[in-house]
Amino acid sequence: MKFAIAYNVKSGRGSAPQIAKKLLASLEAKGHSALLVNAPDVESMRGALAALAKDESISAIVSVGGDGLAHLVINACAQTSIPMYTVPAGTGNDFARTNNQVSTDIDFITDRLTTETPVEIDLGLIRFERDGVTRSEYFGQVLSTGFDSLVNKRANRMHWIRGQMKYNISTLLELPLFRPIKYELDLDGNTICSSAMLVAVANGPTYGGGMRILPGADRHDGELDLLLLKPVSKIELLRVFPRVFKGTHVTHPAVEIFRSKKIALRAKALAYADGEYISSLPIEISIAPKALRTWEAA
Questions:
Q1: Domain harbouring 90, CATH code
Q2: Total domains, the chain
Q3: Are residues 80 and 186 both part of a single domain?
Q4: Could you tell me the pTM of the whole model?
Q5: Any idea what DSSP says for residue 250?
Q6: Is 114 exposed, middle or buried (0-12, 13-18, 19+ CB in 10 A)?
Q7: Is residue 276 scored above 60 in pLDDT?
Q8: Which pLDDT value is given to residue 160?
Q9: Residue 100: which H helix or E strand, with range?
Q10: Do residues 179 and 196 share a domain?
Q11: C-beta separation of 7 from 39 below 8 A
């Protein structure tokens, strides 16, 4: 079997390259071949991954990094025969967590890659306009707009803080500046107009390093879950915020949850998916059933 191991030099406080090299050595020791993939910037990595996903001799592309690199690998492997595996070496690691790819034990990962059969999971597909060009992009976990996307934007600039604390601090800094946003949502043809603190669309249940924003989101049900948080006071938001780590916030009276196959969002807001900037709204999102092959069972 032949594997491609993509890694982010900066992930895991610089540990990702060492993890990638150890995985390569482990695979080769068991009679398989592997190559390391790195690039100086996002677009170069995107191009390298796209080329690999067209190579039918590749058994899988392994992502060694966080959700940002996983997002690139997802988009390379989506709707192809090439599966992907994620080794968590980033800040959030939500895609790895959701798909039971949380171990960094090299022998364990090697065994999974070479003996287990990958399964098919759904993805979300975003259509948007950036720089005057209509584009499309897949996501594996959560697309966020509103307050949480602004928190995400701020957190991405905090290179001196790592882990969940980065998102907690960003929340506290962003909260005093935030005002509710007027949204227009189209859910499978049904229109909803509402002011909201945030709107999140989920294919997987967590984002932001384990926050269970939509705990019922299922990568096999052929639908997207959407959470709309109606305006609440900032004190109330701070009070309810800790509940998101257990997913119990969904019972709050200001929270509404919907399921849909096609969603259109219009508002003066930004969209982030898998922690990466997508575009300003409006955007369209649809479910892409069984669009990606990956390892899921523990």
A1: 3.40.50.10330
A2: 2
A3: no
A4: 0.91
A5: G
A6: middle
A7: yes
A8: 61
A9: none
A10: yes
A11: no
Contact 135, 129 (CB under 8 A): yes
Instruction: Name the residue type at position 114.
Output: T
d(C-alpha 265, C-alpha 288), whole Å: 18
Q: Within a 10 A sphere around the Cβ of 42, how many other Cβ atoms?
A: 13
Rg (CA), the chain: 19
Q: Are residues 98 and 169 located together in one domain of the fold?
A: no
> Do residues 100 and 168 share a domain?
no
**Could you tell me if 278 and 262 are in contact, meaning their C-beta atoms sit under 8 angstroms apart?**
no
The first and second tokens of residue 223, run together, are 């639908």
Range of the domain at 280: 124-291
The span from the first CA to the last CA of the chain, in angstroms, equals 22
Asked whether residue 91 falls in the same domain as residue 229, the answer is no
Residue 3 has pLDDT above 90, yes or no: yes
CATH code for the domain of 200? 2.60.200.40
